[in-house]
Amino acid sequence: MLIRSILSQTTKGSLFSRATCLVSQKGCLFCGRPSNQVIDHEAPQPQNEGSFIVPDERPLPVITSRKLNYPEPYLPPKQAWLESLQTHEDQKLGLIDLHPLIFGVYPRIDVIHQNIVWQRTYRNINYECTRSRAEMPGGGRKPWPQKGTGRARHGSIRSPIWKNGGRAKGPRGPMAYFYMLPFQQRILALRSTLSIKYAQDDLHVIEELETPTDDPEFLQELADVRYWGDSVLFVDDTDVLTRNVARALKEIPHFSAMPVYGLNVYSMLKHQTLVLTLAAVERIEERLLHHMHTTRRDSKQKVLRSPSSSQYFSTKTKTVIDYD
User: Fold this and answer.
1) Are strands 78-83 and 94-98 parallel, antiparallel or unpaired?
2) 107: Cα within 13 Å, side-chain hemisphere
3) How many alpha carbons lie under 13 Å from residue 299 in its C-beta half-sphere?
4) Which of 64, 168, 226, 244 could form a disulfide with 214 if both were Cys (CB 3.0 to 4.6 A apart)?
């Protein structure tokens, strides 16, 4: 009601600022006025009558929708603001749609915990190794006769019950703790973690990973102004950083960057805020949706029906036909 009263009090020919109106090709999405009646007060003012200086900035919004693969008919898409790293202020470039099966699933805390335990365990190697009685030096002769001394029977001073003797059933390293979680369980953990970050408003989408300066204080002040917290993880589609971003992140130990192929549950939960580029969002949705819906039958048939193979496996009769 407040917005309606404000809009009713304004005149038809009044001009609205771009900060309060979201402009599209047809007009403002809030007040319905055409785009020629919405101006940007931050743009340079005309020097003479009839002559205007055209700003270099692109018209907003840059993007408002995306084509989602494998659309879900019963779940509406999630939406996120498209932001930029060019200024400290949170400049909105538009709204983008996110796939509900990637950023809007019910979080499985048990699967996330199993993934965290796996990531912290599978690369560990125990190098501890103890010597048995056979590996200890000495102890080849019987310490005293079997009978006649009144003492207990012993055959070697390197027995495990003796001091400085060999150890029975001790660690025999190196021993690896490597194991693998099921593939779909790892996919579900990634989807659950991304959904948690989105639900807690700790996920932000930027147009590109580029800053106007290589000063690390610029990124720190940007994170403070936008309330991104103490630790931020930047994810891009490529593993090559620009000069400004690489120099700035090098001086900030609690800010990290990684490519899409290195994205994991432990790193996302370790950092308070997750910042994805638009290309990274496209790549993440493409790979996760592909693994969720593929049956891998096409790839198997390509291998079995390769021209280099002298045998052909018939899937209908389940027999092997030899061309030779």
Assistant:
1) antiparallel
2) 13
3) 4
4) 244
Closest CA to 123 of 236, 5, 264, 256: 264
3-state secondary structure of 256: strand
What residues contact residue 324 under an 8 Å CB cut-off, 6+ apart?
310
Helix (H, G, I), strand (E, B) or coil at 79: strand
- Numbers of helices and strands, H then E, in the chain: 9, 12
List pLDDT tens digits, range 140-186.
999 999 999 999 999 999 999 999 999 999 999 899 999 999 999 99
DSSP annotation string for 189-236 = HHHHHHHHHHHTT-EEEES-S--S---HHHHHHHHHHTT--S-EEEEE
Whether the CB-CB separation of 269 and 189 falls below 8 Å is answered with no
Q: Using the structure block, give the residue that is written with the tokens 């690489």.
A: 246
The overall average pLDDT reported for the chain is 80
How many other CB atoms sit within 10 Å of the CB of residue 20? 11
Distance CA 298, CA 295 (A): 8
31 close to 21: Cβ distance less than 8 angstroms: yes
> What amino acid is encoded at 99 in this protein?
H
- Does residue 176 sit in helix, strand or coil? strand
The pLDDT assigned to 65 comes to: 67
pTM: 0.69
